[in-house]
Specification:
Layout: H1 3-14, H2 27-36, H3 42-55, H4 59-62, H5 67-74, H6 80-98, H7 106-109, H8 117-128, H9 137-146, H10 154-164, H11 170-183, H12 202-206
Helix pairs in contact: 1-11, 2-8, 5-6, 9-10, 9-11
């Protein structure tokens, strides 16, 4: 078994129940939640969407809000002006280009205003069961530290992970890496001594 396979096996053993922590009831709700989650915790996003989705959980309902009104709902998530603009623009595209339904493939998801590759990957993998790896700050950091995929940009790391991990494990691996980044491999003070993957870790070996 090579190093990458051992890392994946170790992550699966650590986090057998790894799953998305954003709460949603439809692909559209997930899309909005992922847009809101940029540089914001999932816990905070869930508090915001619990209120927002009571009245505005479809593209049509969302567009009944002005940007200023939406900003008040999502203020706690940070970067609220840009996020509100992206949510409204994406909602408009969903209605005008896709008949009110969130597209179920990566190519069309990325045509939505304000939707980048990371957001598209999450929605494709989680809402539609597609094979994709979304590289957020946790995935980026942990992948580089472990040596699972080295790269200076999220795109480079995504390409590396796609080569290092079997395709049918991409989505699961994405959640494993997020869990490990949140629970052990912290940005400022990684808990290396208690990490069960340290024997495979480039970062620990360099220390």
């Amino acid at each position: 078994m090579d190093k990458n396979a051992k890392i994946l096996q170790g992550l699966a053993k650590l986090y057998p129940d790894a799953k998305p922590e954003l709460k949603y009831n439809s692909p559209y709700e997930l899309l909005v939640a992922v847009i809101l989650s940029a540089q914001c915790t999932d816990a905070r996003v869930n508090k915001v969407t619990e209120v927002l989705f009571r009245g505005y959980n479809t593209p049509e309902k969302m567009l009944s809000l002005s940007q200023a009104e939406l900003e008040k709902y999502i203020f706690a998530c940070g970067f609220y002006r840009n996020k509100a603009a992206h949510i409204l623009s994406a909602s408009r595209d969903i209605i005008e280009k896709f008949g009110g339904k969130v597209p179920d493939n990566l190519e069309e998801l990325q045509t939505l205003a304000g939707v980048g590759r990371k957001t598209a990957n999450v929605v494709f993998a989680v809402a539609f069961g597609g094979d994709a790896i979304a590289v957020d700050t946790h995935v980026f950091r942990v992948s580089n530290r472990l040596g699972l995929a080295n790269g200076a940009t999220p795109e480079k790391v995504e390409q590396g992970l796609m080569q290092a991990i079997p395709k049918d494990q991409w989505s699961k691996a994405h959640h494993y890496l997020i869990y490990h980044g949140r629970r052990v491999c912290h940005s400022q003070k990684p808990d290396c001594l208690n990490c069960t993957l340290k024997e495979y870790c480039d970062y620990f070996a360099q220390k």
